[in-house]
Amino acid sequence: MSASSIIFFSIFLIPLTGLLIWVMRQDKRKATTGLFVLAFIVIIGIMFMYMMTKGK
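RE: above sequence
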């Protein structure tokens, strides 16, 4: 993993994911659905980034 990827994860992605989890947990009716959607998006994003960096 390059230095720019580590900086991106530590400064932008981790706090944004934490904020989204907190916001989705505030909605008691659809919190579980929102968390599943967020987890799916994060997993797809990580897989895409891995595939793009693996090809270089």
